[in-house]
Amino acid sequence: TATQFYERSFDIKFQILGPWHTDTVETFNRLAGICTRSQRQHQQASHMYQQVYELRVAIYGNTHPSVAIAAHMLANVHVCLGKWDDADQNYRLAKNIYSRMGLGPHHSVVEHLSKDIHEMMLLRLEV
Fold first, then answer.
1. What share of the chain is helix, strand, coil (3-state, %, to 5)?
2. Burial degree of 47 (CB within 10 A; 0-12, 13-18, 19+)
3. 83, 94, 71, 74: which is closest to 124 by C-alpha?
4. Considering Cα of 104, then 112, then 58, then 86, what sign does the dihedral take?
5. pLDDT more than 90, % of the chain
6. Distance between CA 36 and CA 40 in Å, rounded?
7. Burial annotation 28-38 (CB, 10 A radius, 16+ → b, else e)
8. What number of CA atoms fall less than 13 Å from residue 119's CA on the CB side?
9. Could you read off the pLDDT of 12-22 as tens digits, one per residue?
């Protein structure tokens, strides 16, 4: 399965490249995506995305687009878990990074983020 492939890939990269290498982090990020999308293991994905976020901050600094993407993905998982305040905090973080990069509201990544924020607000009203 895809999960087994990525787990094996992660193990190899972790051993050979180390935990701080961008390829290792990206493979771990993909494993978190599998937990979220196909396996619906949101709690596990939350922990994994948190680690991806922290590693990307350590590697790239806190204003890098990869950090914004990690914050956005973490926020999406928090929405699935009903952790509205955590989701909101991570969405705002991603939005601030994109803003500092000069991406306007019509940039595709900002539009996607705005759509996810709007969906979170609607879900929050339903609860």
1. 80, 0, 20
2. middle
3. 83
4. positive
5. 67
6. 5
7. bbbbbbbbbee
8. 14
9. 998 999 888 88
